[in-house]
Amino acid sequence: PFPALLLLLKRGRFNRQAQPPRSEPRTGTGPCSADGGGLRAGAGGFRPSRVAVVAKTTRYEFEQQRYRYAGLSEDDLRQLLALKGSNYAGLLERHRIHTKNVEHVVDSLRNERIEVRLVKRREYNEETVRWADAVISAGGDGTMLLAASKVFDKFKPVIGVNTDPERSEGHLCLPVRYTHSFPEALQKLYRGEFRWQWRQRIRLYLEGTGINPVPVDLHEQQLSQEQHSRAHINERFQDQRSDISGPHLLPVRALNEVFIGESLSSRASYYEISVDDGPWEKQKSSGLNVCTGTGSKAWSYNINKVANQAVEEILNIVTNDYNDSLLYSPEEPKMFFSIREPIVNRVFSSSRQRGFSSKVCVRSRCWDACMVVDGGTSFEFNDGAIASILIDTEDALCTVLLEE
Amino acid sequence: PFPALLLLLKRGRFNRQAQPPRSEPRTGTGPCSADGGGLRAGAGGFRPSRVAVVAKTTRYEFEQQRYRYAGLSEDDLRQLLALKGSNYAGLLERHRIHTKNVEHVVDSLRNERIEVRLVKRREYNEETVRWADAVISAGGDGTMLLAASKVFDKFKPVIGVNTDPERSEGHLCLPVRYTHSFPEALQKLYRGEFRWQWRQRIRLYLEGTGINPVPVDLHEQQLSQEQHSRAHINERFQDQRSDISGPHLLPVRALNEVFIGESLSSRASYYEISVDDGPWEKQKSSGLNVCTGTGSKAWSYNINKVANQAVEEILNIVTNDYNDSLLYSPEEPKMFFSIREPIVNRVFSSSRQRGFSSKVCVRSRCWDACMVVDGGTSFEFNDGAIASILIDTEDALCTVLLEE
C-alpha cells in the first residue's frame, strides 16, 4: 500500500503541470521523439514540488576539512595555504560568492513553496534522487557531472546553476544571468518558456577474465595514483562467478566521455579495438577517449583540436618550398610565364595562371600598351600587334661564375 | 682590309688564353654543350686585353645633371633635395663609395696592362662592345642589365661588379668580396679558376597591323607615362611596308623578363594568348610577365611568391572550421572516439585516429589500467577485460534549455 500511496501522492504533486513527456509529442516546435528530441513544454510548464540541490564543496571547505583533524586555527590554515602558494583571501571570497549564490537558489525555490533538500557530494545519493522531482546542481560543470551521475531516469530533469561564473565555463549550466536572478528561471519553467533537452549518455558493458565491475569514486577520495590502484584491489568483486558470467552492465552513464588507458600517465596503453563491429586492431597509444555530443566540447575537443602553432610551422615549410620552386637555373632554355591578377568571369578565363613554356604568342587588344624588356626598353604593343616570345640558345649571355 | 686586320689583331690578343669555347668540350666537370652549359676553363684561363667598364650614373650625379641647367649651386642642390625628403649627405656618400669602387676596378685592370674604356650609360654603345674583349658593369643589377642589353655575341663575356653592396642585391654580379679585392677575381680568371655560365635570354618577334618595332629607352629619358606614349608615337616607323611584312625580330634580348600590358598601371590589359602553340585564349588581367631563369628571381618571383599573410588568413579559417567540426549536438545518439597519440610502427597501426561510431569494443592488454567515466568513476580494466561501449537513448539525461 505504501508504494501505491506514494505513487498517488507523486501524481498529485504534478497537478496542473506538464511532466517531462514520455512518448507522445506535444504541440510546439522541434523534434518530437522521446528518444532524444527536445519538446516545447507547450501550454503546460514545469512546476516541481520537491527539488534536491546538490552543492559543490568549495576549495576553502575542502582545505578546512583536510586540516580539521589537525586542530588548526583559521590563522594556521591561512599560513599553511600561503606556504603552498595559495591565496587564502581568494579562496574565502570564492567560497563566499558560491555560498551566496546557493542561498539565492534555495531561497527562490522556497519562496515558491517548493520543498528543498540541500546536499553536499557525500550526502547525495540515489535516495535523494528518488525523492526529488528535479535535481539542481549548484556549482560548476563538475557538480553537474556529479548530479547527473546518480540520475538514471530519463524523465528526471537535472538543471545546472553556475555558482562561480568567474571560475567555471559552466557550459553544462544555465546561462549565467540566471545565477543572480533564479526566480526568473523558475517563472520561465512555470510558463513553459523553455525547451527540454536530452543529453545522450554512454553505457558500458564489462566482461572477460579477472574483471571487477565495482566502481571507485575518484573525487571523494582524492586518491593518489597508488591509492587508486589499491582501491580497485580492495573493492574487487568477491564473487568468482563473475568470471564466467555474461557482460555486466556497469552502474554508470557517461555524460561527457569514457577514457580507457593506463593509470600511470607516463605509461603507454596496449589494447585491441573494434569500431562498429569492424575488425579488431591491436593498438598502442596514450589511451582512448569515447565521448558524447556533450563531451565533444570537453576533453575530446582538446585532444583533437588543431593547434595553430603546428599548422603554422607546417605552413611555413610548405610556403617556403613553394616559393623556392619558383626559381630555376639561368642556364635552362625555358621561360616561365605569369598572368598578373587574371580577371575571371563569364566572359574571360585563365586556364593556367603560370607555368613553364617554350613559346608564348600574344595578340594585343590593348589601347595604349607596351612590351617592355628588362624594365628598360619599350615597344608599342596595341590592338592588332602580335608578339612571339621564345628562347634561342644563340642569344645566351656569357658570364663567369667565380667560387665564393 | 681593316676588318680583317682587326680580326687578326683580335685573335692575337687571345694568345695563350682560352677563348670562351665554341663547340668542343674542354676537360673538366659540368655540362659540355655550347648551347648553354658552363665549362671549366681548364688549363687555360681568360686574359682579355681590352675591357669596357660600364659605370652606373649615381643618384647624386643624376640630381646634379637634372638641376645643372638651372644654374644651382651645391648648397641650392642640398636644400632642394632636403625639400624632397632626400638625404644629401647620404647621396654624396653613396656616390663616393661607388666612385671609389669603380676606381678600384679600373686600377686593377690597368695594373695588369689591360686597356680600359670607362663609359657611362649614354656613351655605352655597340661600338664599345665590339672594341672590348669583355664588358664589366660597375654598379648594381640594373647596370648589369644595361651592359648585357648591348651584347649579342654569346662569346663576349659580361661580368658584373657590385659597386654599392649596401643598396643593391647584386644577384647578377660577382660575390661582394670581389668588389674590394678585384685583383683576386682577375687572378682567378687568369688561372682558369672559374666556370663559364650562359644565361639564357628571350627574343621577340613582332608582326601584325600598326606595329612599331622601334624601341624606346625608358631609363635615359626618365619619361612620365604621358611622355612615354608620345615617345612611341614620335618614333613610329615611317615605312608603311612594315604593316605587311613578316615578323620582325626585335633588336633586344631579355635577360630578366618581358612584360606586356597597358602602360597605365591602373588600366586592365586585354589580349589573347597562346602557350606552346596551344589554343588561343582571350584574357583580361594586369598584364603578362614572361621570364628567364635569371628573371625567375626578379619581378616574376614577386608576382608569384606566396605571401604568408594570405595563407595565414586562409589557414585560420580552415583551422577554425576544422575545430568547429569536432563539436556536435548533445542530443545526437552517436559517439566520437579519439586515439591519443597512437604509436605507429612495424608492429602497431591505427587505421583511424578519430571518428564517429555507434559502438566501440575494447579488449585490454594493459598492466594497470582503468576505464574512467566523466573523470570521476573508475573501473579496473586489465589484461583480459573486454568493454563494450555504446549509447542507448533510454540512458539520456533530461535537462532544460532556457532562452538567453
Write the layout of secondary structure elements.
The structure is a homodimer of 404-residue chains.
Chain A: H1 2-13, E1 50-55, H2 59-68, H3 74-83, H4 88-111, E2 115-119, H5 126-131, E3 134-139, H6 141-149, E4 158-162, H7 177-180, H8 182-191, E5 194-199, E6 202-208, E7 216-217, H9 218-221, H10 225-234, E8 248-249, E9 257-262, E10 269-275, E11 281-285, E12 288-291, H11 299-304, H12 308-325, E13 335-339, E14 354-357, E15 359-364, E16 369-373, E17 377-380, E18 385-391, E19 397-402
Parallel strand pairs in A: 1-2, 1-3, 3-4
Antiparallel strand pairs in A: 6-8, 9-12, 10-11, 13-14, 15-18, 16-17
Task: Tell me what the structure shows.
The structure is a homodimer of 404-residue chains. Chain A is of the alpha/beta class. Chain A has twelve helices and 19 strands. Chain A has helices at 2-13, 59-68, 74-83, 88-111, 126-131, 141-149, 177-180, 182-191, 218-221, 225-234, 299-304, 308-325, and strands at residues 50-55, 115-119, 134-139, 158-162, 194-199, 202-208, 216-217, 248-249, 257-262, 269-275, 281-285, 288-291, 335-339, 354-357, 359-364, 369-373, 377-380, 385-391, 397-402. In chain A, the strands form seven sheets. A four-stranded parallel beta sheet of chain A has the order 2-1-3-4, sandwiched between helices. In chain A, strand 10 (269-275) and strand 11 (281-285) form a beta hairpin. The radius of gyration of chain A is 35 Å and the shape is elongated. Residues 1-42 and 238-242 of chain A have low confidence and may be disordered. The interface between A and B is large, with 190 and 190 residues.
